[in-house]
Amino acid sequence: MCPTYSRQVTEPVDWALAAATGARLAPSGPDDDRDGVEAAVRQLRRASERAVQPVADVTGLEAPFEAHRSVVVGRKEWVRSNVEQLRTATEPVADLLGGDGNRVVRAIGSRTTALQMGGVLAWLSSKVLGQYEAFGSEGRLLLVAPNIVHAERQLDVPPTDFRLWVCLHEETHRVQFGAVEWLSPYFTEEVHSYLRAVDPDAGSAIGRVVAGLRRGTRGSGGLIDLMQTDDQRAILDRLTALMSLLEGHADVVMDAVGPKVVPSVDIIRQRFDQRRQQAGTLDGALRRLLGLDAKLRQYVDGAAFVRAVVDKVGMQDFNAVWTSPDTLPRPAEIADPAAWIARVHG
């Protein structure tokens, strides 16, 4: 048996099938001619470059632009990137999840899992405006052009202003990971720890889901939350606090920079916040099922934490949060900024 085939049979997911499925099912973007598409791509590239200095001025953080570049992509490329990110994230525990003796993987099969993953990524591919590739060494910032164009038209806001406004948020993520050297390895290790704590007993996982559904999923993170072990839940609490910090920090920075460089920032923020809270019946059901409503809360909770700390101690002392994993806000501190200030600044 050749090594390549041996690796394939122990993989928990048929990654090539997941990428192909997601790319095939990803909905098409706005119906623009080639010139319109190329013009939008050029303007997004310029906006990403324009966002660099204002974000550095507000945050006090700097990351080499060449080493952590921004890339304008379509939905299919976003899907392929996320498949690779998921593959990197799960690689150290592939044997645990995909061993020949594992009942869960044997029952579901790597191809079935790939089809499911591809379907979810295809749905998400039309929702995401930008994303930083936190796993791996390349560190690209992806700007999803068709989604940004669709959103600006849906909100009826000036395209030039909206594109720069989005880039300010995403540039902050690039700077967070590019300027804080330990952040990406820490985030990766926490995800690996979460996966190592997976319960290989399908019966236990299903039992937790059934019990949770009987209680109702209100207040939970959807099916993902219901299937977790206690160890996983503790890790996810830390990850949620970190993601709240990162998303909230990006929102605060984009609003701080916005009035200086984005003339219509007030109307953009108002309409964008309304859009975040709205979803159709199917979209709303899928968001709740996957636990994505928690993602929306991260923007609100994290932004409130960052604003409270910056108002009290200023941005320079807020930046103590990036000193080490020990200075990150603990889960309870996201809702209690004074506790973080007392712990970190005495």
Essential attributes:
346 residues; mainly alpha; 18 helices; 3% strand; globular
What do these coordinates show?
The chain is globular, with a radius of gyration of 21 Å. The protein has helices at residues 3-10, 15-25, 34-50, 52-59, 75-90, 94-98, 103-108, 110-124, 145-155, 159-179, 183-196, 202-215, 223-226, 230-261, 265-277, 281-290, 293-318, 337-345; strands spanning 70-73, 130-132, 141-144. Strand 2 (130-132) and strand 3 form a beta hairpin. It has one domain. Strands 1-3-2 form a three-stranded mixed sheet. The chain is 69% helix and 3% strand. It has 346 residues and is mainly alpha-helical. The chain contains 18 helices and three strands.
Summarize, please.
This protein has 346 residues and is mostly helical.
